[in-house]
Design a protein that fits this description.
Phosphorylase Kinase, domain 1; Aminoglycoside 3'-phosphotransferase, Chain: A, domain 2; 2 domains; globular
Length: 356
């Protein structure tokens, strides 16, 4: 942390600098709240990696309008890679609401998340060129195709180990989702990791999205599907009540406006994204789940559901999804039955706030 503060002094050489507190970051970043001439700011330094996270967060924040539901970019440094942004406070996140005891608060938090995401999508739909220009040219503006190809490869290995037939049609449907839900459709800038803990409730009741180090330009259905999977890239992936999910999705459609959000294609596209996220996340989790029934994370302050229950729940959702992907639905059914034979029934527990 001393090195981080020293690096910030290089950015603001003539300012008074005070460290307020170190914040929770990740293996990829160090994050701190500081005072620069009395002004509270958030400093994020990226460690390891190839510079992708720094390039994406800097690019995303640099093109957002001032009223976007996101922090404002204040300063950057390329060496070492640092982003300095406005401090939006330490308010509660959606994750905190889901881990709480009040279902009404949790449902309201989900709706607020949907509103903020729709606002971000609406504000950035015409910003593809600006994002591409701000992003380092060696990083792709979308990683969906790579994710689908990796998921198809991992799924093939898992199917072979489980003795489950993997038809070529299923592989074609999975990889084809990248073209079906591509960045030329109803697309916008996305944090690409809009998890329940990557947001902050502000004093005025709004919800600000944080953590843009995975940001990309992609079809917005990939984001909306986070509600229905739920939370495919996140630790807080407990089961959500259908009525709360439906209400949040209605909130998104109302806030997003436009013809796509009101069309029948909306439901089919979101269902297709749900199927895609199912196979991506199952490809991440299944190897460990075959060995033991560990939770998604082992961090005490991030209680998460078991991997086996998460996998079976997602496969069940995917086999029932009206996504126009019959081969993937059939494969999800076969995988679900094969894994249930091994593990027995493993119901996914509801988020704590909805367990009354």
């Amino acid at each position: 942390m001393d090195d981080l503060i020293a690096n910030v002094r290089e950015i603001f050489p003539d300012a008074r600098l005070d460290l307020v507190e170190r914040l929770i970051g990740s293996k990829r970043s160090l994050v701190a709240r500081v005072l620069v001439d009395g002004r509270p700011l958030i400093v994020k330094q990226y460690v390891g990696g190839d510079g992708d996270g720094w390039a994406r967060e800097r690019a995303a924040l640099s093109i957002l309008p001032d009223d976007a539901p996101a922090p404002k970019l204040v300063a950057t440094s390329a060496s070492p890679p640092i982003v300095v942004m406005t401090d939006i406070g330490g308010g509660p996140s959606v994750a905190k609401a889901l881990l709480g005891r009040d279902p009404a608060v949790a449902a309201d938090a989900m709706a607020s998340w949907a509103t903020s995401l729709a606002t971000l999508h609406l504000q950035t739909r015409g910003s593809r060129g600006a994002f591409r220009g701000a992003l380092n040219a060696r990083f792709p503006e979308s990683t969906v195709l790579e994710q689908m190809e990796d998921a198809a490869e991992e799924t093939g290995r898992h199917c072979a180990a489980l003795g489950v037939d993997l038809p070529g049609e299923a592989v074609a449907e999975l990889v084809g989702l990248a073209d079906r839900l591509n960045e030329d459709g109803p697309a916008a800038l996305t944090p690409a990791d809009a998890c329940p803990d990557n947001n902050v409730r502000t004093p005025d009741g709004g919800l600000v999205l944080i953590d843009f180090e995975g940001s990309q330009w992609r079809h917005v259905a990939w984001d909306v599907a986070y509600l229905a999977v739920p939370w495919p890239t996140c630790w807080c992936a407990w089961r959500l009540p259908e009525e709360a999910v439906d209400d949040a999705i209605r909130t998104y459609r109302s806030a997003a406006g436009g013809t796509w959000a009101q069309s029948p294609a909306f439901h089919t596209d979101v269902a297709a994204a749900v199927v895609g996220w199912t196979y991506v996340s199952v490809s991440w989790f299944l190897a460990r789940a075959l060995a033991d029934d560990a939770a998604l994370t082992a961090t005490p302050d991030k209680p998460s559901p078991p991997r086996r229950a998460t996998i079976l729940h997602r496969l069940d959702v995917a086999r029932r999804a009206d996504a126009g992907t019959p081969a993937l639905a059939g494969l999800a059914d076969r995988l679900h039955r094969a894994l249930t034979d091994r593990w027995g029934e493993c119901p996914l527990p509801s988020a704590p706030a909805f367990r009354a």
